[in-house]
Amino acid sequence: MAQIQFPNTLFGPGTFDIVVNDNNGVPASVLDAGLDFTVDATWVIDPLAALLLGGQWEVAAYVESIGPGPEQQVGATQVVALNGGTNFSTQIVVPANTLPNNPAPPNSGVYKLIVVLTHRNNGVISDVAAVAEGPFLRIG
What we know:
Blueprint: E1 2-4, E2 14-21, E3 30-31, E4 37-44, H1 47-52, E5 56-65, E6 71-81, E7 87-94, E8 110-121, E9 124-139
């Protein structure tokens, strides 16, 4: 779980959680490169923040290879409108074959996952954000 950073101390804490699921919807950290997987994100904000924030949330997932290999965004950035509520969720689908199958040394096929939640209002990114470090993933 990560904390959502708010620049205004009037807002209570917010939380941001992620779970990686295999193609069967089961939490996993060892995944088949030839099958889709998902990153499910959920977050909760304070009721006062919900009343005062406008705009949208953006959620994006990135991987960094351990050793040689790809370092990139995986799946499309998800946009979630602020609607006055306090609970939000979205799912990033990582398509099959986004990352290499059957890696050979020195490539490990192991990746560190980072998911970023940002707030955008009137086209400008604000200081409201969270960064969640996901599990290490083995793709192959």
